[in-house]
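Morning run. Coffee first, then this:
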Amino acid sequence: MFIKTLIDETELLKKVAMGDERAFRMLYEQYYRKVFSQATRLMRSEEMGEEIMQEVFLKFWRLGPKLNTIANVDAYLKVSTRNQSLNSLRKLAIENKHSQTHLLNYTEEHNETEESILLNDTRKILTDAIQSLSKQQKEVYILCHQQGLKYDQVAEKLNLSPLTVKTHMQRALKQLRVYLQDHGEIAVLLIIFKII
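And here it is:
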């Protein structure tokens, strides 16, 4: 059983190294809870834990062919999470010391970092993808995915059967995936940020 899991994981890593987003999603689904839990424990904040988790998986994806050198994904992600958390804690400590030193001269600057630009781009692409859906698919997607309603609730609200809602949702997700495949790394970010 352990050997089969190891072989499956090795195969997934090879696929992720070649840019296979589906394989990445499978590894992400398998490990994101562990990474989030460890990061949250180290940072003592769920919000910071979420940020660390996203950064760890984004760096993991960007390794590309170097992923083939990883022998144990679990151990690699644990070390990455610890290192990313420690780096963030150091950065917070420096920022805290800096802000205390310069508290009187503080002026707020709006400096968009690479991550916030990337997140904005990601949101725009997802918005464009949603706008490309049919009216019914768009309504169902927004109510289910963005407002968190169950199929039964959506069916009642739109005066449809739950089965029709499910069909619209499946078609919407399929169309969104096709749209996002044309946007490479952006689709991976959407997986990491759990937007789709």
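The chain has a mean pLDDT of 78. Good start to the day.
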